[in-house]
Prior knowledge:
The chain folds into two domains: 15-73, no CATH class; 95-232, Glutaredoxin (3-Layer(aba) Sandwich), CATH 3.40.30.10. It has six helices and seven strands. The protein has helices at 15-43, 50-73, 129-145, 166-173, 189-194, 220-232; strands spanning 95-97, 103-105, 113-121, 151-159, 178-181, 202-205, 211-215. The strands form two sheets. A five-stranded mixed sheet has the order 5-4-3-6-7. A two-stranded antiparallel ribbon has the order 1-2.
Amino acid sequence: MRPLPKREKQKKKSWKERQREKQIEQQRIQNAREIQRERDVQKKPRKWPKGRVLGAFCLVLIVFGAYGAWQYTQPSTAPPTIDPSNPLQSIYEFSLSDINGTQFSLRNFSGRVILIHIMAVGCHGQINEVNINQLTQMRAVCSIYCESTPITFITVAVASCPTSNLEQIRSSYGISWLFGNDYADGTMDIAKKYGVRGDGTIVLIDKTYSISESFGEASASEIIGGIDPLLGA
């Protein structure tokens, strides 16, 4: 039987070789750690330093605060609220200037039937739906009565902005009767007295210069039903 070959003895590594291998292994471990660290950074969302976060938050507060202050100083584009001070029981005397410059007093129309319409107007000419209806119905009624009977129509606007476009409203809604701005003197005393049903109120005054009736949103037939008995009186 043939004898087995003898194992060769493993050559013992020198100190330098062992040090070299140790350095290579340490470098390999260090490289692996760097790669893992880079991967972890890519996975985590980037965080702002606390100082930057606080600064950005303060900046947002300043911007919103400034915008809110600016909005507060701007005039509302919505029509103003008309809130009557007391129930109307007797005539409230007033003088007003039509938007074309004609000055008139309510007393001038004593002995006639008078229809007073109160209308809030916002900046840039906005009016509420109730007044779109009232102006439409009044135009129909005026076409029947204004030229042939002793009746006077007056629309009293409450427009606190210089950009309320009253001329455009007159043209758009065919207002052929007296049309003035209660707020021209900086107050809204006429609206407070005659706006007994809020924005859009229509008040009828009879020939004896007494309050007859008031309407909220009304149809032409309802207004005519209030006018006819006063004309015949």
